[in-house]
Amino acid sequence: MIAALFIFLVVMAFLHFIYEGIIAPTLRMKLKYKMFALRDRLAHRRELSVNSDDPAFDIVARSINSVAGNLTRFTVTKIYSTRNLLRTEKGLAEEIRKRNQLIDRATDPDLREIVKLLDVYLFEALLINCAGFFFWLSPLILVAYMRHRIIEVWSARIKAMVRMIVFVPERG
Amino acid sequence: MEEVRRDIDEKKPVRYGPWDMLRDVLSAAIDHGQFTTAIVGLVTIVFILRIPAQELASIPKEILDGFHEAPFLGYILSVAIGAGWRIHVKTMLMSHDEEIRRRDDDINNLKSKL
Fold first, then answer.
1. Among residues A10, A84, A171, B73, which one has the fewest Cβ atoms lying within 10 Å of its Cβ?
2. Closest residue of chain B to A134, computed from CA coordinates
3. Contact, A28 vs A125, CB < 8 A?
4. pLDDT per residue over B53-91, tens digit each?
């Protein structure tokens, strides 16, 4: 029992070492490249936009830079401590609210899309940072996927059978 | 963060006990998605501490004998490491090339507008 537990922990440590040391930095680098592309897209959009002096452009550009430089910092405990900080620091919360309002008021549809993509990339960064958790969730994910596949396949077959019954020609 | 630093009294010595250490380790484990592994590790440590010394000596032998009985694991691992290394390098180079190509295209587009 103890030997099995020990071997399991050694294997987990080895996998975690490989993930944190090799795979996660590569995934973060790919994400960083995506953010660079997003930043360039924002700059091009600003050049073409009629409202190029809209402060929302500056806010989003700074946010992209900040996110790209701090990808390793987006973790579960950081989100929790930020939430607690915003509860105590009313001024900071108000500033964030004002910035969000500025972005919401922005008329440029491309800017809104860029902000949406930034949210997606942030979520990706969070997933990359806590990917070890998915090892434990993998049996559940596998079961959910299999269940989905089974329902998909069997529902198609059942639907086909029902259709056959519905369109049976009447005798006599 | 500044607010937290202001709360700390400079004159008082900072107390950092084993519970604080455990809290920090578990927080880091949560950050890296390894909370469950950390709990399993703690349970293993507790188990090991409760085992009598005579029985404890047999555990390393049992583990090493286990490795001795499965030599094929080494071959599988070496192939997996080699393949993993190659796939990783290929992926890294591909994403780097993609980024360089994207920047080149951007520069060329800007030049064509001049």
1. A171
2. B33
3. yes
4. 888 888 888 888 887 888 888 899 999 999 999 999 999
> How many domains are there within chain B?
2
Does the interface predicted TM-score (ipTM) exceed 0.95?
no
pTM (2 decimals)?
A: 0.75
Q: Which of B47, B59, B95 sits opposite A30 (nearest CB)?
A: B95
Q: Cα separation of A91 and A96, whole Å?
A: 9
CA distances from B2 to A71, A86, A113, A129 (A): 22, 13, 34, 25
Among A5, A36, A129, beta carbon nearest to B31: A129
Question: B46 and B3, same structural domain?
Answer: yes
Nearest CA in chain B to A13: B37
Contact A130 B91 (CB under 8 A): no
Residue B39 and residue B75 in one domain: no
